[in-house]
Design goal:
The complex is a heterodimer. Chain A is 74% helix and 0% strand. Chain A has 13 helices and no strands. Chain A has helices spanning 3-35, 53-59, 62-94, 100-112, 115-126, 132-139, 154-179, 183-191, 196-207, 209-225, 228-233, 245-255, 259-285. The two termini of chain A are 38 Å apart. Chain B is of the alpha+beta class. Chain B folds into 2 domains: 4-226, Rossmann fold; 229-327, Beta Barrel (OB fold (Dihydrolipoamide Acetyltransferase, E2P)). In chain B, 26% of the residues lie in helices and 31% in strands. Chain B contains 8 helices and 18 strands. Chain B has helices at 42-50, 92-102, 107-121, 136-150, 166-182, 194-200, 218-223, 228-233, and strands spanning 4-13, 16-26, 31-35, 57-62, 65-66, 77-80, 154-158, 186-191, 203-208, 211-216, 240-243, 259-262, 268-270, 274-283, 287-294, 297-304, 314-318, 325-327. In chain B, the strands form 4 sheets. In chain B, strands 6-7-8-3-9-10 form a 6-stranded mixed sheet, sandwiched between helices. A 5-stranded antiparallel sheet of chain B has the order 13-17-14-15-16, with no helix packed on it. Chain B starts with a strand and ends in a 10-residue tail after the last strand. The chains are: A mainly alpha, B alpha+beta. The interface between A and B is medium-sized, with 18 and 24 residues. Bound molecules: adenosine-5'-triphosphate and magnesium ion. Magnesium ion is lined by residues 42-43, 158 of chain B.
């Protein structure tokens, strides 16, 4: 085949994937960016170019800051806990213990359930007085609480539920990684008298780092992407106390019909995610041992 | 005193009995080889001595102390694994120092022991490399260096050379032997390679299906095999074992002898004697192995240098009756032969 024909051939092979990527990823991204530079249009006043005015308005929007703060707390509350739990569960079910298959399944079940279903289950847990949580508290003579109705507890309640849902998913990755570790490593450490904890700290955890990076990237993305539960549980309330960035974007686009402001927020979300993903890769990558 | 003794050691896994009441003593400063075909329980015995596997029955004594229920780290043993068991994320230095750090050895002593070990196994230039950047032989050296720094009186090795090529294996064999002697180790060495056993061992423990077949020096095992299995397992090519009832063999027959064993190097071609046909000729440089057939039986002859024989030739062979080993119907050696 001649050189130029080979090029044509290569491009033809790439085209289907490229069309899909451009149509559903790159074009919408650019379109969003463009839209964020225009004003909100209405029947009498058509949309027009306003430069960075939407971004200025955003900076003055107290709800935006509250939502961003919520999201930060949500990320801080869910990521370390679910990763730590995932490692702990994986270490547990990787050992030879009776009923290990059942335990693995049990830990993984929350992952199989759709978020909406999970939220419905937890809605029952959290409902004041008749809910599971209040019933348990009642046994100890403690008063009930409106967990989702109190701005002080609502975000915490959602964090707990998200950790419950996510940890099992991350556990699977850790379990797979643990099973690639040759058992002789532990035996060699054991012969030297290394405690379980020492072996974990010096050997297992460093060897799990590639998995941890993967899980962290996913966890960070999820903490900005997951909003399904808000529809069922709180709708971002009370008074935006549990509102997250993506849900706020949804509200702007489909409740207030301000597509341009929604586009502005979306750009901010994209930039945030890109920065975090890059930061993780660059900071962590250097300290990771890949096999 | 840091010899190793095992008494009636057994390991049961559900229905399978991998080790079936094994007793032997590995004396201080000697190299004992556990030899046997795959699956005969060598690794299991070694792991029970190390404490990585619990003994189902029997006792393990190290330096006259019963360690059967003792934690592996307190038995005074170090171990070299077939897969080397190097920590892939740590460099050679950290791999060698791992045990010393666990045991909280002082920094100055760590450095001293590291230097000595690296010098002994020739790793000085490679201390900053990761295991993935080393060749198989170099990785094996790191594993040996770990044994050196551990300073334990007893060392256990499970087929440490089986991943290396033939030339390197011969080299490392010398190195292991040298280390054992310089460090005055009681070394228990597992292998299924009889050349390795013959060339290194002070004592060979030959195993088969979880039982000891014979214990002795390499020469004892070679010259006085306890049974037909031992006779066939040691030596390349293995001993010829012929069923005398089916053949018309020259020479008298020992009382009750059922199988006749003769080493290939003791079979010599002559003008008259036992008639055979050459079925193959394996020329190996310093020697030639003739594969001979007589009726349904085959036997091998090992000759020095090159042989003029070609497949299809008819020859006669004979052997000195003093070189014959006799075995009874069960394959057990008949003494006095
Ligand atoms: N964890 C285990 N559970 C059940 N059976 C086992 C286990 N480990 C080993 N065995 C069995 O015990 C027997 C002896 O195994 P072992 O590993 O000691 O053999 P080996 O002599 O070291 O063989 P090789 O030369 O192939 O390494 C084998 O039949 C094996 O199938
Ligand atoms: Mg083995």
């Amino acid at each position: 085949m001649s050189g130029s024909l080979r090029h044509v051939y290569g491009w033809l092979l790439l085209t289907p994937a490229a069309i899909l990527l451009i149509a559903f990823t790159h074009y919408p991204t650019v379109a969003t960016l463009v839209e964020s530079l225009f004003s909100r249009g209405s029947a009498i006043r058509p949309s027009k170019f306003i430069g960075a005015a939407n971004y200025e308005a955003m900076l003055d929007d107290p709800v935006f800051w509250e939502v961003l703060g919520n999201n930060l707390w949500f990320a801080l509350g869910t990521i370390p806990t679910s990763v730590a739990l995932a490692i702990a569960m994986a270490l547990l079910v990787n050992r030879a213990l009776p009923g290990r298959g059942f335990l693995r399944l049990a830990y993984f079940t929350p992952t199989i359930l759709p978020m909406i279903a999970v939220a419905n289950i937890w809605l029952f847990f959290y409902s004041p007085d008749i809910g599971l949580l209040d019933n348990i508290l009642g046994v100890f003579g403690l008063p009930g609480h409106n967990w989702l109705g109190d701005p002080d507890t609502v975000l915490g309640a959602i964090i707990v539920m998200t950790v419950w849902k996510e940890a099992g998913f991350f556990m699977i990755f850790y379990l797979a990684a643990l099973q690639t570790l040759p058992p002789e490593l532990e035996e060699a450490a054991k012969l030297e008298g290394a405690s379980r904890w020492y072996y974990f700290r010096r050997v297992v955890f460093p060897l799990l780092m590639p998995t941890t990076l993967f899980v962290l990237v996913n966890a960070v993305l999820n903490s900005f992407k997951l909003v399904d539960h808000l529809f069922v549980l709180t709708k971002g309330g009370p008074d935006n106390a549990s509102n997250l960035l993506l849900y706020y974007i949804y509200e702007n686009a489909f409740s207030y019909f301000d597509a341009n402001y929604a586009a502005t927020l979306t750009v901010v979300l994209l930039v945030l995610l890109a920065i975090m993903a890059l930061a993780q890769f660059f900071f962590l990558d250097r300290r990771i041992h890949y096999r | 005193m840091s010899g190793v003794e095992v008494r009636d050691l057994a390991k049961q896994w559900g229905g399978t009995r991998a080790v079936n009441g094994v007793s032997f003593t590995a004396h201080e400063n000697t190299l004992t080889v556990l030899l046997g075909p795959s699956g005969c329980g060598k690794s299991t015995i070694l792991r029970m001595i190390a404490g990585l596997e619990n003994a189902s029955e029997g006792v393990v004594l190290i330096g006259d102390k019963d360690v059967t229920r003792l934690d592996p780290s307190r038995r005074g043993v170090s171990m070299v694994f077939q897969s080397y068991a190097l920590f892939p994320h740590l460099d050679v230095r950290e791999n060698i120092l791992f045990g010393l750090k666990v045991r909280r050895v002082g920094a100055a002593e760590q450095r001293e022991r590291l230097d000595r070990a690296a010098r002994m196994v020739g790793l000085e230039e490679l201390l900053d490399r990761k295991p993935a950047q080393l060749s198989g032989g170099q990785r094996q050296r790191v594993a040996l260096a770990r044994t050196v720094v551990a300073n334990q009186p007893v060392c256990l090795m499970d087929e440490p050379l089986s991943n290396l090529d033939a030339k390197l294996r011969a080299e490392m064999r010398d190195e292991v032997r040298r280390l054992q002697q310089n460090l005055h180790l009681t070394l228990i060495y597992v292998t299924h390679d009889q050349t390795e056993a013959m060339s290194m061992a002070d004592q060979v423990v030959l195993l088969r299906e979880g039982n000891i077949v014979q214990t002795g020096t390499p020469a004892e095992l070679y010259e006085r095999p306890a049974n037909e299995f031992a006779a066939r397992f040691l030596g390349t090519p293995p001993m010829n074992v012929l069923d005398v009832d089916r053949l018309d063999l020259p020479g008298e027959r020992a009382n009750g002898g059922h199988f006749l064993g003769i080493r290939p190097e003791k079979v010599v071609p002559t003008d008259t004697g036992f008639p055979v046909e050459v079925s193959a000729v394996d020329y190996m440089g310093a020697e030639t192995v003739l594969r001979l057939s007589h009726g349904g039986a085959t036997l091998m002859a090992r000759l020095n240098g090159r042989s003029e024989a070609a497949p299809g030739d008819r020859l006669h062979v004979r052997w000195d009756p003093a070189d014959v080993h006799w075995f009874d119907r069960e394959g057990v050696r008949l003494e006095g032969t």
